[in-house]
Amino acid sequence: PPRPVFALSFPRHLVVSYSDGEGGDAGVGVAAWCSERLGQTPIAGFMEVPEMVRHLWSKQKASHILSGEFKDIAEIEAIGPLLILHNWPWLLRNALWIHFIDNNGALGALVNGSSSVESQEIITGSTWQLVAQLETLPWFDRVDSSSNPVDGLSRKDFSGNWSWREITFPSTVLRSLTSSLS
Questions:
Q1: Considering only CA atoms, which of 54, 69, 27, 29 is closest in space to residue 119?
Q2: What is the model's pLDDT at position 118?
Q3: Which stretches of the chain drop beneath a pLDDT of 70?
Q4: Alpha carbons 31 and 83: distance in angstroms, whole number
Q5: What burial letters (b/e) apply to 137-166, b meaning 16+ CB within 10 Å?
Q6: Which candidate, 122, 121, 154, places its Cα nearest to that of 44?
Q7: Is 11 exposed, middle or buried (0-12, 13-18, 19+ CB in 10 A)?
Q8: Tens of pLDDT, residues 129-176
Q9: Strand partners, 29
Q10: Res 23: pLDDT
Q11: What's the pTM?
Q12: 124/106 Cα distance (integer angstroms)
């Protein structure tokens, strides 16, 4: 009898990436490794989440209104995988993608594909929409902060062997946040 075939219809390359967010300055560091497309030097990027976005996130939470402080570490952490997809689609298209993150709330939303918090739901939905558009096969997993190679990047420690790439915040997320508040 014929044996089942589990081979993919086209070859896929492996991308391994990490992200980390820092709550004070809303710094996000990301990096990706892919020996097939990048050689031995990983690409990396850093950005601070725009303050306008942090205000939109906070308007969805009563705790911010009462305290006046940003309470958005889950969103800052969750945006990392989306930044990789948004800024490096050429790397993730048709890839087998393993991504590590060190925040349980952000990881849970990514794995479940949804969140009960609207701001995280927008991030998660945008992430999975790009995953589908790029025909990427993702696996999201947890890494301890002490083992996360990009932990320093989110805190503006740029030391290391990185090939730096500019990264930008996805305008589609900004539009979704703005429209969700109207």
A1: 54
A2: 82
A3: 1-10, 60-70, 182
A4: 10
A5: ebebeebeeeebbbbebbeeeeeeebeeee
A6: 154
A7: exposed
A8: 999 999 999 999 999 999 999 999 999 999 999 999 999 999 998 898
A9: 20, 46
A10: 86
A11: 0.89
A12: 9
Phi, psi of 45 (to 5 degrees): -150, 160
Task: Provide the sign of the torsion angle of the four alpha carbons 119, 121, 124, 126, taken in this order.
Answer: negative
Residues present in the chain in total: 182
Q: Are 138 and 32 in contact (CB under 8 A)?
A: no
The amino acid occupying position 96 is: L
* Cβ neighbours of 84 (radius 10 Å): 26
CA distance 3 to 147: 41
Q: Which two tokens stand for residue 116?
A: 């009960």
